[in-house]
Amino acid sequence: MRTAGLAVTAAFLGLVGVAAQKPAALPRTADGRPDLQGNWTNATITPLERLRPNTPLVITEEAARDEEHKTRAAIEFREQDSDPNRSAPPVGGELRKSPNAEPTYLERVWQSGAGVVGGYNSFWIDPGDRVLRVDGQPRSSIIIDPPDGRVPPYTAEAQARIAKAAEIRKQFGEFDHPELRPNAERCITSFGSNAGPPMLPNYFYNNNYTIVQSADTVVILTEMVHDARIVRINGTHPPASVRKWFGDSIGRWDGNTLVIETTNFHPRHGYRNSWEHLKVTERLTRRDTRTLHYRFTVEDPTTFTAPFTGELVFNAMAPGEMVYEYACHEANYGLEGVLSGARAQEREAAKKKTQQ
User: Fold this and answer.
1) How far, in Å, CA of 356 to CA of 351, rounded?
2) What is the per-residue pLDDT for 6?
3) Is the pLDDT of residue 207 over 90?
4) Of 63, 106, 160, 184, which has the maximum CB count within 10 A?
């Protein structure tokens, strides 16, 4: 009896162990679809494109931890108090020094955004400090295809279109014309491609999202400039003449994956100089209670010489963390200053002409 009892106990404990290891069931909506709702973040220090040639997509855990250590060192360096007795910077400004032998990718992004005159201090910076890991594998880039991890080259048609636009901008200084100022500067859409599609980190801040879902609609709210994309389930695209800021997004369910096809982009808001013939296909899959797997493919044969695909992980925000309103225009006098400056120049020119 003792032997039989031990056998039964062992079998029972074995069943308990198997049950304990069984993954938790995915949350589902009332109509049985995977529940994508909640607050999510796609912040990562992994760049969109691979930085160096011949770098594999999957890197070692040691290399990933080294990059994370360097990033934390750069962030801590930015948080140091300024020296009140420091001398004046050189005329024209200077780039912030790096605590690392070679500036990290994030540091180079910050420098390009702020230039030599400086920008937001670290209080406002929240880029994340983790290398992207997909299925536990550290990645060197978000792009997975083409195999080199780079956006394919522009077509000859696209190069001519981009050059023509650049010639127009040369007539004015950067941000010095109300109609040429970019959408993000005018607080119309997020800078980079936060809202997308594709939905990508901007490596500065506000890489957070709120997803709300019903049987026939999914809304993706982006914290950056409070952009909102409305995905209509099993809808149809309007005529090509109907152009929307974030394109027209149609969704369908492929098993547990939400597939979103977006076309009909607005001329002022496409992706990387593409809009008229741009199509972005996204796939959102809830892997578990804490993560969404996100894959996207960008296609435009008139702009890119080949399609390209990337993937990310959206992580659930910690309990208590919130997505805030992005009050972009609050106390923003930039455009007013540009227009006032232009009128002052006109008055000065008219005055000189009168004196002559």
Assistant:
1) 9
2) 47
3) yes
4) 106
